[in-house]
Amino acid sequence: MKISNLAGAVLVAAASVQGQYVWTEPTSNVTFKIAIPEATAAPFDLALSIIAPVATGWAGFATGGCMLRSPLLIAWKNGDGVMVSPRWASAYHPPELYNGTKAAVYSGSTANETHWVANILCTGCSSWAGFELNPAGNVTFGWGVSSHAVDTPSDPAASIRFHDVGKDHFEVDLTAARLAKADFDALLESFGDAPKPTTGMAAR
């Protein structure tokens, strides 16, 4: 999705759109779009788009439903691009870089004067530390949003400040987000050029 088309996307509430599950957090107007490939069990990759108003300092997604002991993806604006940083927290302090997941950030991840969008393929987000997501059932994802800009946006390990806009969780039936392999591959192609997965990667 080109960023010029984001205005309509951010108004969408929970729904299944072309196989992606779309949920908008009403206070921040940050939208999360989720898709997975057909799978009977974890592990499987997770495709995630985060669409945020440009004033958003950072937006976070927790595959385990909460901050603690759960793979986190933290995204923020980095110039006219986006940084995505895989994180982990074992206590209530700013999460640190996490090597258990890899976030591939596609070239369609861009920013303009109104919004930024991060198109991500996460490897390692569906299974971790004895937990796993059910690809054919209800799961709980978490979110957090801050108005505070990251001090060093080009650094994937940059310190992030408190999620003062809010934090909570939302429920998703992953069957509404499952795509056949060809459709999942087409979705990734629509994200832009495919990068090599890495821990903390800037898209320009």
TrEMBL record:
<dbReference type="Pfam" id="PF16010">
    <property type="entry name" value="CDH-cyt"/>
</dbReference>
<dbReference type="InterPro" id="IPR015920">
    <property type="entry name" value="Cellobiose_DH-like_cyt"/>
</dbReference>
<protein>
    <recommendedName>
        <fullName>Cellobiose dehydrogenase-like cytochrome domain-containing protein</fullName>
    </recommendedName>
</protein>
<feature type="domain" description="Cellobiose dehydrogenase-like cytochrome">
    <location>
        <begin position="23"/>
        <end position="180"/>
    </location>
</feature>
